[in-house]
Design goal:
This is Sigma-70 family RNA polymerase sigma factor. Pfam families: Sigma70_r4 (PF04545). By secondary structure, the protein is mostly helical. The protein has helices at about 5-30, 40-55, 60-85, 90-100, 110-115, 120-130, 135-145, 150-155, 160-180, 185-190. The chain is globular, with a radius of gyration of 20 Å.
């Protein structure tokens, strides 16, 4: 049986939440394009999940708290979208959206920086073929959600070495794609025919 949290522990939890709240807001807002009225609700639900985690398992660092909040919100958004659309939206779909919105040529994460240098339309079209589902899960967990490699590996049920290898392979494939010219048929597909019939 766990003892009730101390006031100091609760103060630290509140300080961690306050520290990560703006970053978390931006993350949830990316998950809910056009539904900004729901952002605060999802954030509060995730904060309640973090509070339960903190009280049941003990204190966590700022980065761990951010990762817990983001994962809780992502799970809730998947459930919300599935209920709203009466279809099944996969975590892979959400992961792709997160990677596309986090792709930035100036990112401190090398994978997101490489993705940011690839033409956005080209990346949307090729991302599912460029990276495996597992590689996308790893990139989102480590580079977008900020999990440590060991925690991401544990959560995904793989070894840290397996995670590192898959992440390195993803980076290599993205870098190779960045340096290779677009395939002629890909260009034709992305550009509408502008010829005027005679």
């Amino acid at each position: 049986m766990r003892l009730p949290p101390t006031t100091d522990s609760e103060d630290r939890r509140v300080a961690v939440l306050r520290d990560v709240w703006a970053e978390f807001y931006a993350y949830v807002r990316r998950l809910l394009p056009g539904e900004y009225h729901l952002v605060e609700d999802f954030m509060q639900e995730a904060a309640a999940d973090l509070t339960r985690y903190w009280r049941d398992r003990g204190e966590v660092t700022r980065n761990q708290a951010a990762a817990i909040l983001k994962q809780a919100a992502k799970f809730d958004v998947i459930n919300h979208r599935n209920a709203k659309a009466h279809t099944t939206i996969s975590a892979g779909t959400i992961d792709d959206e997160l990677m596309l919105t986090a792709a930035d040529p100036n990112s401190e994460h090398e994978i997101l920086a490489v993705m940011g240098r690839i033409d956005h339309d080209r990346l949307i079209h090729l991302l599912p073929r460029l990276l495996t589902d597992r590689q996308r899960q790893i990139v989102v967990a480590v580079d977008v959600e900020g999990l440590t490699q060991s925690r991401a590996a544990q959560q995904l049920g793989i070894s840290v070495r397996g995670l590192q290898k898959a992440r390195d392979t993803a980076l290599t494939r993205l870098q190779h794609h960045l340096t290779s010219p677009p395939a002629p048929h890909a260009e034709q597909m992305s550009r509408p025919n502008r010829e005027v019939p005679q």
